[in-house]
Each structure stands twice: as C-alpha cells, then as structure tokens.
Specification:
The protein is of the alpha/beta class and about 230 residues long. The chain folds into two domains: about 1-20 and about 65-105 and about 155-234, Rossmann fold (3-Layer(aba) Sandwich); about 20-65 and about 110-150, SIR2/SIRT2 'Small Domain' (2-Layer Sandwich). Helices cover about 35% and strands about 20% of the residues. The protein is built from ten helices and nine strands. The protein has helices spanning about 10-15, 30, 35, 40-45, 45-60, 70-75, 90-95, 160-165, 185-190, 215-230, and strands spanning about 5-10, 80-85, 100-105, 105-115, 125, 145-150, 170-175, 195-200, 210. The strands form two sheets. The chain has a six-stranded parallel sheet, sandwiched between helices. It has a three-stranded antiparallel sheet with strand order 5-4-6, with helices on one face. It starts with a strand and ends with a helix.
Length: about 230
C-alpha cells in the first residue's frame, strides 16, 4: 500500500516557471492594489480593470511551462499516493501530470458566473489565449468572471484540503510563506509523522517541521531522492 504524500504548494514553486508572485518584495501586490483587483468590491466598482488584470495573467500562463519541481511531484505518483493542495491558480501541476490537485484559490484557466461562482453548469474552462470581455455571458446570463477566490470570499475546497492534510503520512510545504489564511492553518491539520517545508527564505517554520532552505526545484530534487530511498528500504 502506497504511503500518503500531501503537498501544500504556493507561489514559490511557480515562480521558477516565470510566473509572478504576489507577496515577494517585487510581487504583484507591491505594484497593484489587491482590493481593487481581487475583491468583490473591486469587481463591482471596475469590472474592466479586474478583467484586464486576469486576462494578462492568463496570457502569461499560456507562455510558461511546468518546472522540475512540478515534474518530480508528478513522477512520485509511481511510488506514493500523492495529493497536492495548491494556493496557486495556475494549472502547472496538472500540466506536469499530477492527477489529484485541490485548488484553494480558484483556477485561472476557468471562468464562472458572477452571480453564483460555484454553480456547476456555469463553470467552464477558458482557452488561455482567449480573453474575457465585458458582455461575455455565463450559462445563467450573468457576466463571466474569473474563477478565482477573491479576498473576503469563502474557500470552497478548504474542508477537502483539511481532510486530505489529516490523512497524510508525509506532509510537505513548498514555496509558500504561510501568511495567507486559511491555507496557513493546514500545517496544524497534518496527521503526518514527517513534516517538511521547502523554502529558501526566512520563514516562520511550524513546530515539528524540517526546513529545507532551498528553492522549490532544488529542494524537490533533494526530497525526491530521499523519498525514493525510503521506498526502496521498506
């Protein structure tokens, strides 16, 4: 029986693919007003500005590829039962081949109703090179909006993420500052006997976590080989 490996990933893993982060010293929220571009109040005030921001991010995603860290996580499915909980709205985990990904903050490749974001028949995948325009309608006749969890909105997949973290044998945090709530509470939900955080910065390491102070790609290469040795020694 495969051991349960649960990953909590953040912007740091996608940064190495060329995707801008939000909270770094040169991140997007240093250049833009988050409440104007990532809140329901901002959407109601200026939907065109919000659409322009996410259209640009979607086009950027079309131009980048999964990196070695994404690929190694997908490869680990050969030996482990891997579940990925991601704060990222990109699709790089899926494009690398990971088969079980829980998105906490939505998905950039999807659009939805502006009346009921979680209405199943109003959520659709959007080609990454196709913008959303004012006047584009969801199936319920409302304006299409990005399928993103904005500030102040509930996180629909949080319960599933908590349950997944609790089931972990090994819990790994990659590329997140653990400053964003409620995602940062997942470390306390871990039921794992081995807890690891991979981040090159000075982070507030949760109690009981081993800190691998490397970038996502280097740290994942180190962890990958360690996990394979563990399988071979069973």
């Amino acid at each position: 029986m495969k051991k349960k490996l649960v990953i909590l990933s953040g912007a740091g893993i996608s940064k190495e693919s060329g995707i801008d982060t939000f909270r770094d010293k040169d991140g997007m929220w240093k250049k833009h007003d988050a409440m104007k571009l990532a809140s329901i109040e901002g959407w109601n005030e200026d939907p065109q500005a919000v659409l322009d921001f996410y259209n640009a991010r979607r086009r950027q995603l079309h131009e980048v590829q999964p990196n070695k860290a994404h690929q190694l996580l997908a490869e680990l499915e050969d030996w482990y039962d891997v579940s990925i909980i991601t704060q990222n709205v990109d699709d790089l985990h899926e494009r690398a081949g990971s088969s079980h990904v829980i998105h906490l903050h939505g998905e950039l490749a999807k659009v939805c109703s502006s009346i009921d974001k979680e209405k199943p028949d109003c959520i659709e995948t959007r080609p990454l090179d196709k913008d959303i325009h004012l006047g584009d309608k969801a199936m319920d006749g409302s304006q299409l909006r990005p399928y993103i969890v904005w500030f102040g909105e509930p996180v629909p997949n949080m319960k599933a993420a908590m349950n997944t973290a609790f089931e972990a044998d090994i819990f790994v945090v990659i590329g997140t500052s653990l400053l964003v709530s409620p995602a940062n509470t997942l470390t306390a939900c871990s039921g794992a006997s081995h807890n690891i955080i991979i981040d090159p910065g000075e982070v507030d390491v949760p109690e009981g976590f081993l800190h691998i102070k490397e970038t996502a790609t280097i740290g994942m290469e180190m962890l990958f080989h360690s996990l394979l040795k563990s399988v071979n020694y069973r």
